[in-house]
């Protein structure tokens, strides 16, 4: 099983427009961050995409991704879904639409905002066949489990994917650790966790909360993501405990 970190930046990326690097060293390539998406791949080569970030085309090209077996959405915030049109080239040559899954409210919002993706228009094929998460337990050979997380006044979905006797958990955009999250991620082989900045934030996990989630779940290894311009790669790497990695665009973790 393998994790490919397509993007690990916050909603504005790093640097922000205006060439604002904040505390991040512009000479460190791992500080250049696109918006968050990941790809999970099994030993059989099956691929699940989580979120269609605003930078999805760039991420597909950088990582030589031209095929996926399904797509999952954590929620409908712009940085997590507005790259949805970049799925179109992955639809070419398929016998049918790409399977897609999200929570009920996210499904409703995505259908409202991107109706052509899910219904087809003017002779164009449907790109994604969208369904709710309560209708799936297995996908492309992966076992899929999930729970809802608080994301300030909104909600986000946490995922646990299992294949080949291994597991990857994904928890981006959460502002509180719930018992359901701890249960979902307990004993996971790799946990990818939200970690916006060092100081507390009303809608995202900060460094202390991210490390607490890793500790409470007993995750064997963890990767920090959704990092803002205050989180310099080298400085943060020297700060985190053993077994916790600072994510970067293009990072691959094989289990």
TrEMBL record:
Pfam families: Lactamase_B_2. One of its GO terms (molecular function) is hydrolase activity. The keyword Transferase does not apply. This is MBL fold metallo-hydrolase. Keywords: Hydrolase. It comes from the Bacteria. InterPro entries: Metallo-B-lactamas (IPR001279), RibonucZ/Hydroxyglut_hydro (IPR036866). The lineage of its organism: Bacteria, Pseudomonadati, Pseudomonadota, Alphaproteobacteria, Sphingomonadales. Residues 34-226 form the Metallo-beta-lactamase domain.
């Amino acid at each position: 099983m393998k994790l490919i970190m397509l993007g690990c930046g916050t909603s504005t990326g790093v640097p922000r427009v205006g060439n604002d690097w904040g505390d991040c060293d512009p000479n460190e390539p791992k500080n250049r961050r696109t918006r968050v998406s990941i790809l999970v791949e099994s030993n059989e080569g099956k691929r699940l995409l989580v979120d269609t970030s605003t930078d999805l085309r760039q991420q597909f090209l950088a990582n030589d991704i031209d095929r996926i077996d399904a797509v999952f959405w954590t929620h409908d915030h712009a940085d997590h879904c507005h790259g949805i049109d970049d799925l179109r080239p992955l639809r070419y040559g398929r016998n049918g639409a790409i399977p897609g899954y999200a929570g009920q409210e996210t499904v409703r919002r995505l259908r409202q905002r991107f109706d052509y993706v899910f219904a087809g228009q003017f002779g164009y094929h449907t790109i994604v066949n969208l369904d709710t998460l309560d209708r799936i337990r297995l996908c492309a050979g992966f076992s899929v489990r999930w729970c809802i997380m608080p994301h300030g006044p909104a909600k986000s979905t946490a995922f646990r994917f299992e294949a080949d006797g291994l597991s990857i958990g994904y928890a981006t955009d959460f502002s509180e650790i719930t018992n359901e999250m701890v249960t979902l991620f307990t004993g996971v082989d790799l946990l990818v966790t939200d970690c916006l900045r060092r100081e507390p934030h009303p809608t995202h996990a900060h460094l202390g909360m991210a490390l607490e989630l890793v500790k409470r779940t007993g995750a064997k290894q963890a990767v920090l993501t959704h990092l803002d311009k205050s989180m310099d790669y080298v400085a943060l790497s020297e700060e985190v405990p053993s077994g916790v990695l600072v994510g970067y665009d293009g990072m691959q973790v094989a289990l």
